[in-house]
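Box 4.2: Ligand-aware structure prediction
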Amino acid sequence: MSSVSIRKIRKSFAGLTVLDSVDMEIAPGEFIVILGPSGCGKSTLLNVIAGLDDCESGQIVIDAVDVSGLEPSQRGLAMVFQSYALFPAMTVRRNLSFGMEVAGTPKPTIVQKVDWVAKLLQIEALLDRKPGQLSGGQRQRVAIGRALVRSSSICLFDEPLSNLDAKLRAETRVELKQLHETLKSTMIYVTHDQIEAMTMADRVAVMHKGRVEQFAPPQSIYEKPASLFVAGFVGSPA
Ligand code: ADP
Ligand code: MG
């Protein structure tokens, strides 16, 4: 479990401000959902946390260490994208182990970790298949597994369920929550879906035009929206 501090992050693309002094203190083991409409800066914020994107000012601090200058691979976090980005020519087993092979992880550790996630995510029977032979939901599990073998202490998710149908989305929401209980990892989960946010989060950060308008537990967001935007977006009565 790790704490994550996002401090005064600013970023713009071609003169347009995309992140406007974003501040968030995330406690170890929290499940945080970043909620907001398309284009409000959610993916950019996640990419800045992961180190996949730079920012003009501000800091990302993980467990009291400023990681702002570190490469993504040095930050000790796992990221799951909307497009699963699995390697099509590799088996599921190889998809899971490849990152560790590249990083020079000892073989017995690789085998142990692959067995662990395969069991955790119930994909043991799929290990010798290739991504093309999997359903959308199965590919999604493999993508989550691939992230978890890298790090299970901080996991970043960027709209990971948006390519699934409604039934599978609902099931996977429940499973992700169970996974969070089991691993006790710190999870930062981006979505534009209010139901996902309200059902999964310990706290929700509602974003609008590059700013966090409210950062609070789902119930307070719903009962005491901090602005008209928040009230309108989560559909609360105010
Ligand atoms: P969200 O994930 O909430 O939909 P994004 O973080 O992807 O939003 O984008 C926020 C804003 O930044 C949008 O206006 C988008 O067009 C812009 N943007 C994102 N990435 C780039 C880029 N690489 N170059 C220029 N503009 C970008
Ligand atoms: Mg996005």
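In the box above, the bound molecule is adenosine-5'-diphosphate. The helical segments are 42-50, 92-102, 107-120, 136-150, 166-183, 194-200, 218-223, 228-234.
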